[in-house]
Batch of 2 targets.
Target 1
Amino acid sequence: MSWEDFMKHRFFAGIAAIAVMSLPVFVTPALADITIGVTIPTTGPGAALGIPLKNSVELWPKEIAGEKLKVILLDDAGDPSIATTNARRFANDDKVDVIMGSALTPAAIGAAGVAAEVGVPHFAISPVPPPVAKGKWTFVLPQYSSVLAKRMFTRMKQDGVKRVSFIGFADSYGQQWVEELKNTGKEYGLEVVADERYARADTSVSGQVLKAIAAKPDAVFIGASGTGAALPQIGVRERGFTGPVYVVSGAVTFEFLRIAGKAVENTIFSSGPVMVAEDQPDDSPTKAEGLAYLKAYEGKFGPNSRTQFGSHVWDAMVILKKAVPVALQKAKPGTSEFRAALRDAIESSGPYNATHGVFQFTPEDHYGLDQRGAVLLTAKDGKFQLLPEKK
Amino acid sequence: MHLDATIATFLIQDGLTNGAVYALLGLAIVLVFSVTRVIFIPQGEFVAYGALTLATLDAGNVPGTPKLLLCFGVAAFLLDLWSWRRDLKVDALARNFALNLGLPLLIYGAVLYLAPLQLPSVIRALMTVLIIAPMGLYVYRIAYRPLADASVLVLLITSVGVHLAMLGLGLIFFGPEGLRATPLHDGSFTMGPLLVTAQSVLIYLTTILIMVALYFFFEKTLLGKALRATAVNRLGARLVGVRTQLTGVTAFVLAATIAAVSGVLMGPITTIYYDTGFLIGLKGFVAAILGGMGSFPVTAIAAIGVGMVESFASFFASNYKEIIVFGLIVPVLIWLSIDAVHHEEE
């Protein structure tokens, strides 16, 4: 190709690029629709969270309080920079009324930053740390680890556990849990005697398991998520550990049970209540929405397809259904007045009885969930069951 | 924490088991590199595909890989048609049709028929290898053959591209959650304090068997000798009548077969995700680098070493395990760079 040809190509490529970049300017959303921008990882390391979330977004109603609902869903692959770009696109080009996402903490923090800067109500689908949750525009949907941890530690104390070996992910998720165990656990008389880490993609955890058991613990605590938690669960049982094993909520999936098989006997899981909506007493505030969600989700995606991750966006819709009518009295969707009114309405219109607990947001607390947001489970015959309270 | 004899034997056993699989992968990487100059990063994806295919077959379902094979075959067929657009011969077309469309269709049909029958685990393992092995052929045809004379750097970038594409396809076909296959044999026996599972014995035996088979292939068969000739000198091999395209295809099919076998061996002892393969392949790559990307015996021994280091590192400093394992290659690279004559491109 000659230099001239090359320049010609460059010229046309340049025009094409400009045309593509300027496209969003012409696509302004019709006013009076409520627009929600969702950024979640449907590929990459967070895909196990992102795919059930995407499925659950499909279950959203077509309108809220008579206003048509417009949803823009983008994949961020769990990458904070992509999540930030997505959030910026939502705010600048799509003029959204609500931003949701992402499901991995670093990416959620990125989206929260944009929401705070441009003033759009934001639901984080990850338990972002307190400095982020203090932000004026960000509300947190999943349980912060302390809600689940307190329920779990109470039970461990009742079971007479003192020495605990921790095996968990070598990332922020594992770190968060070991810190709960070391800091909050002290109040429950728990002592961490081994702190072992591994990566989700590791093919063996034998070394970690051996060390955890050699420390002679009363119990093993697994701080890992999804099927990744199965490796140490099987490992400790293979090495003949018969004491109780406590597993955090991220592992409460049917895939985990399928892989761990018989190794889950004498294992206790902490979880959001949605996994066992059927088992809850009828007066439980989380039962009605939980059943409705499971019926919708499993009706569309098959029996036993439930996860706890997906229902967070259902909870967001529970909140919006109540908050949007309040905000509509003040302003029309698509305006900054509406976004401000919606933010205020979310904060003040609680309590919201959702699938994962009862949200009661206040200006000081954007986590909103209390102990009703956590239950303990056991597993039997490939199914999770609600563990009765120990008196 | 004290390391007593019992724990040490456990760790050695664990390191040996993983090291044996890394050895297979290391050998495949050295094989492909020496014959085609391709640094075969997608090797790990083939392992994951193998393990996930086996796990899906174990559950009595039809895995996505035969369908993928069919797509690859169609792409290869179309590429061949395009390259022959000026000079179409009937017999070549027929051969092309049989290889690129007939073979994957046959495999797809067989899997569709056999998958729900709950056949013995050995048959399922064989089916898995049969599904994955031809992928080496099509991946070579689609991605690498058009670039056979490109520089090592271009081929490396191609490899990264193939790796990313196969990673994405893996997510589509197998989903985000991990799977675990059932062991080929459930038994185990104790040896002193050690619990030895039949699966780990199977891993050792298969690794040794494949190494012996590779040795005889390279030493005794004409095709093996042609591969060695290509590895020594591509141009020279061509001049004396070796079809370097054929040796390239052979290297890729061998590598895919070895990867599929590794996947079948690995699948039942751990949870495999669509993206696990990369890390496993990378450890084979570490072994291959320790072997100077050329020596089969050194690579095999280095792989066992990688497995051991990994196992002991996970006991003493689980947080730094990967850093320790991948840190192994730094001194070797420095040593090789001092030793090597600098040339940009051969």
Note: The mean pLDDT of chain A is 88.
Target 2
Amino acid sequence: MAEIMSSEVVVIGGGVIGAATAYYLCREGAEVMIVEADDLASGASGACDGFLSLQTKALGAHLRLAMESAKLFPSLVEDLEVDIEYRPCGGLILATSQEQMKELRARAKALSAEGLEVEVLSASELKKILPEVGKEVKGGSYCPLDAQVNPISLTLGLAHKAQEMGATILRGCRVENIVVTNNRVREIHTSAGSIHSRRVVCAAGIGSNQIGKMIIVDVPVLPQRGQILVTEPQEPVLPHIVAGAEYLGTKGNLQALLPAEEEAMKLGLGFTAEQTKSGNFLLGSTREFVGFDSQTTPEAMNAIARNALRFLPWIKDLDVIRSFAGLRPCSPDGLPILGTVKGVKGFYLATGHSGDGICLAPITGKVLSELVLDGETSLDISPFSLYRFK
Amino acid sequence: MKGDWEKVWEEARERPVALVDCRQEIPCNPCEEACRKGAIRVGEDLCSAPVYDPGRCDGCGRCVALCPGMAIFLLDRRGGDGQAEVTVPWEMCGEIVEGERIWAVDGKGKVLTEGKVVKIKWMGGRWPTRLVTIRIPEERALKVRGVRFRENSVGSSEEVDQEYDLPEDYPVCRCEDVSREEVLKFLKMGLRSLTALRRSSRVGLGYCQGIYCQEQLRKELGMVTRRSEEETGMFKVRPPVRPVKLGRLGGVNG
């Protein structure tokens, strides 16, 4: 006979979004249970880089959400017992052609108009903050508010703090069904038994579609593979997080910034580089739709390495010690899906963050906790409604 | 070398003395660095066999702990009662206790005689080795190269678990410098799989990619979580299998 449990709120998913949601709920005194099919940070949150990049966000609501999220990181550094390796290091986007420079200039202007400080740097200005770049690099844009974090530590830190505040974490516990009666969530059937709960947050990342099906709601989230190379550790030499303009192109599907080569286009290749606290370089990345396959491929590894050397030729002698790939929960427009669903009271979505889950986790957790407990949010999340796709 | 051993045999009447049985001319010289008395010399040519002067040895045992080939031992015949004390390095994980009866074995693993463990000492700085001193009839003493448990040479897995004993500060993952204590701390937080342990503690994320620590970690994980090896899983193998220069991977340096 399976055990019958109960909780005020059940959060499905032990990734960064689920952990952040549980954390903010617990801070408000809610009783929370995290149901995780595998283990904490075992999906996309544990297989990504630590970019907290504001200047790569889509203009408008997405950017505003990211800026609110960025404000919350320092408080997490204070509150979490784990070192989340947060570093307000500023971020660079490098352009390799005058056309790209023109785009970056236009974007910087638009971003500034929305209140984000972004500075356009000529090649010589760039030299002052990043001395050695490839010959192709024509300049870039710098956002001082961009930062870096260790995504795994962040996830674990949030989850453990939530646990300390009373949350229960069920690892290796798979959701099998969600019982809805009279248009309200009542019960969650899991591999570890039934949980009585009237509020369920779906933070299941790439599993959200499957969870949605249980309540007959289509959650349009597809896995998008991102591959990343890891080098041996080095003394700190890379002061900022760095991306190529094509990264912006493939991320936001901006026509003018898409990579020129066909292979790069196919892989959704965009250069990213950061040096972690442990000294390793993380070099990215790709955006591929290949179903649930999370293997790395030699083609992509070669392409990432080749691309990285265009921007930072001096890292050619670093040993690549590992590669990894994560499946990002990708929504049709690349923006998160937050909020309630029609016809099922007590069911909340916090998914589809695409490549921005780490960056948007704190604000997502905060607004979701407000939504679940008060029914309204301090920030307008209507642009992220599931029903924008219809 | 035999001439040396006669000298060792004589000197061992006065104090413990090292017995160097290094037969391989390989590039290796920790023994030279270990000896504070300058009794062991390898010299310029790293591949040459060590030259050893028993007269200068003070029997400190550092070379015994540091020789990676476990080819140095201590001989002590001060008792003068026909018994000798032989010290051998022990790098197995089973629990060995003072007072225990144990087999003394030769270089081929053949049992020479039964002995009694009289002393166990950790030595060797950062990554210490246990030095096990046994008491045996002295006529066998020069041949002893190791020790073996007397009973159940192949124990059941539960017994092996109980015998398992490494110090808390033992560096389980040497690439990322993670001690056994830290690993145990993470395991107590309720992790279920090897990859989860890797994410939390950084074990296996270093240069070797877990090649060296994986078995040890699976054992620790199995003991704490009581899950089978199939359940705890292995590290996911991700390319490159061996480190490769970024330039090479990107096709810049050929």
Note: The mean pLDDT of chain A is 95.
